[in-house]
Amino acid sequence: MSGKVDLHTHTYYSDGALSPRELVMRAHEVGIGVLSITDHDNIDGIGEAMGVAGDFGIEIIPGVELSSTLGTKDIHILGYMFDPDNRQLRDTLSFLKKERFIRAERIVRKLNNLDLPLDFDSVLEHAGLGAVGRPHIAAAMLDEGLTENYAEAFESYIGESGPAFEPKYKISPEDAVEIIANAGGISILAHPGWYVSENDLSYLIHAGIDGVEVVHPAHDEHRRRYYRGIASEYFLLESGGSDFHGGKRNDYPNFGTFTITVDTVQAMKRRLFIQ
Ligand code: AMP
Ligand code: ZN
Ligand code: FE
Ligand code: FE
Q1: Which residues contact 30 (CB under 8 A, 6 or more apart)?
Q2: Which residue out of 10, 97, 152, 154 has the highest number of ligand 1 atoms within 8 Å of its CB and is therefore the one to mutate?
Q3: pLDDT tens, 30-47?
Q4: Which segments within 170-216 are labelled E, that is strand?
Q5: Which pLDDT belongs to residue 196?
Q6: Cα 86 from Cα 72, distance rounded (Å)
Q7: Whose CA is nearest to atom 6 of ligand 1?
Q8: pLDDT 10s digits, 222-241
Q9: Which residues line ligand 1 (CB under 6 A)?
Q10: How far apart are CA 213 and CA 1, in angstroms?
Q11: CB-proximal residues (5 Å) to ion ligand 3
């Protein structure tokens, strides 16, 4: 195990731009030796990445970023080092994908009833291989000239108080932690600095997260220090990465910059009794 470590990246199996193969090649170019692909509610990129990583001397850590809900907040839980063939995990992910599809159909039907002639197929084109969500609906609306801009689609139609809103199937943070643990992995709270209050944080620690993300583009040095302190105080693992989406949102400079050390990966393995 050598080189930089990035445990938070996305491919076109969720909302990233690159294939797993392209991501691995790019990782090699920026000096990453240990990489985890953490697609949103999807693990389809792991096998492909493992297939090519050997050629570049890169170790792939199985990963996923599960969307859970606490109150009205989206809480992202990163899972690592689980068995990608675990039945319960695979079944849950395919269930969530189906639920998202049905929900997107409902949203499009509501839009059609509001006299917006949005075509469901164009939404699916935007989703590509990933699970379909509101960002794809907004992008399709924009393409078809049904909204002035992306933000307006949310404000006027598909946002939480919009007339075409449909809630998502919800899993709790406890569910997310349990699914990952049952598949033999560890759970890390993603980018807590984005939205997690101190109250939520203590709730999530009680819910059984194994660690917190310390290094992330949304965390300045002050936040890093804060979450490192939390990790040591509550005997939690530390993690981190770039949350790279393959050039979307101009995030290329982040890849290879927001990295952690191999000690972190070794601590995770020790927690799971992996040699
Ligand atoms: P979904 O999981 O399908 O409900 O979509 C959630 C995603 O939609 C979020 O991760 C954001 O990227 C995007 N989103 C949610 N609300 C807004 C908003 N008001 N403006 C722009 N993007 C939004
Ligand atoms: Zn994403
Ligand atoms: Fe996230
Ligand atoms: Fe992410």
Answers
A1: 4, 255, 256
A2: 154
A3: 999 999 999 999 999 999
A4: 186-189, 211-215
A5: 87
A6: 29
A7: 134
A8: 999 999 999 999 999 999 99
A9: 133-135, 151, 154, 159, 168
A10: 21
A11: 76, 190
